[in-house]
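ingest -> fold -> write
write: protein_1
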Amino acid sequence: MNLDFKKPLIEHSNELKQIPQKNSFKGCEFSVSNMILWADYYQMEYAYIDGIYLFKQTMENGSIRLSYPIGGETEEMEHHLFELELEYFTEIGQEPCFGLIDSLMFERINRWYPERFSIQYERNWADYIYSREKLAVLAGKKLHGKRNHIKRFMERYPEWCYEPLSKDNMDDCVTMAENWCRINCCKEDDEKEEESHLVVRALHNFEQLNMKGGLLRTRDGVIAFTLGSPITSDTFDVSFEKAYGEIQGAYAMINQQFVIHELQNYKYVNREEDIGIEGLRKAKLSYYPEILLEKGLVTERI
């Protein structure tokens, strides 16, 4: 059987939106909105075979990385699709290479093919996954600083309000995102500029992409917003979060208010990786993740 890959597009949303119901892996790359929005930047494609999804990434040097099969009702089904992936590598004349593999995926691969493959984890790819309840309540000494940031925000902006993202306030978020980009010099950072375009695209298409969002408003307008979509039935991915850095507590406040108002039906919140940025790593660790989901590259042992 040939693997027929295609680029994920917004018009494929109905086909792809089955993934959160079928998927049991919590990596942020399995958020449907991420698949579609970042497809061009990361040269991602997908195939849908026998109810299971496979993903392909084409690297700058032309080499291919495939994903672990997603959505199998049994391990036997996943194993069968993995065999097809191995055949695909043989057909294209490349040694097998599987990207963004977590420890549970690798455990299964190693069980199917004992000692045939090895994994090299990349810390910068690790996802920070938090308890939704802990993000909402912020209880305990460790999160005392977060509660203080929120208290100061509420004291300084007593007129603040939270709003769920809707067609009525979406344009206000677009305006805030574009202003945030100007303030933070996106034009000087290719990845930051690309993300700014994707934020606007996500906002304009949030309903079709099955995304939820929320915003904070003061008398000065929208000062923070966040946006994401489900990964699994119990895990939600926060894809984008913007706040004006000069407003103390804005990030902590939008983080808390969003999980309180929009994520009641989820157990976990994936706030994605830190991509090796020291300040971002420090900020994500300061919320004390429930799971640090490490992912790596799987290749055959030499």
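write: protein_2
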Amino acid sequence: MKKLIVNGEVCSLEDVSMNRWLLDDPVIVAQKVWFGYGGIPLLNENVDSLKEQVSFLGALLPPLFQNRRELFRLCKRMLNKNRYYRSGIIHIRLYVSEKKVNFLITSEGREIFDFPLSEQGLLVNISPYRKPVNPVASYPFYSRLLWETAYNNLSNQHRNAILLNDNEYICEGIASSVFMLKDNVLITPATESGCCRHQIREVVLEQAIKMGLKVLEAPKLEKELLFHVEELFLVSEARGIEWILGLGNKRFVRSVSSDLHEQLNFFMEQKAGS
């Protein structure tokens, strides 16, 4: 019987009724947080993001999220009751209405211990849907409908897509940050491009610098650049590192993403134990 957290109480899925929440026509603010190595390494960073998004909507986080220690304890209790002892995803959903902020926390376990890495390269395309360039576009809750639309319109051979912004510059992947390697420089769109500020994005940039890579964040990356880089990959907490094999007729090598995966695992293990 699957366990989850509803408004601060660990309960069974069969006991949950959300009909009254949905009648309040809420805005759903959600984060997917990776757990592993006995901890939840980026829990605080993701809660900070949730706080910023809820504040933008004129609301406050529920009291549980202001007590990070108790939130961590309840999440660990939920994971233990579900027998998720290796790694996986904690999905936090906040239902923000005029009356109240209700919340639901669920989890999904995986059989691996490490932060995910796609063993086979993905084929992707450039999505026909464009990301707006404005400060609100950096919030995941604002982008979710666009991501779902882009994902649902992928062809059978494509598993993700590169999104451009309204100005036709490279922005992000579907619910993920995009990284490119060219001449030993790791390139990614700057937040001014409209890309979402995923918590894992900053971690990737920090770890890349520790690996000795040069890092370039630029707001205006022409889409033609995608066909002139050596390596292309996406990163998210939900799916880990997704190495891209091909975009159109262009094929990419696998290079720094494997080393970066090792570096990220070392970072996550250290942070989970701190």
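write: annotation protein_2
The CA atoms of residues 193 and 219 lie 5 Å apart.
The chain has two domains: 3-110, 122-273.
pipeline exit 0
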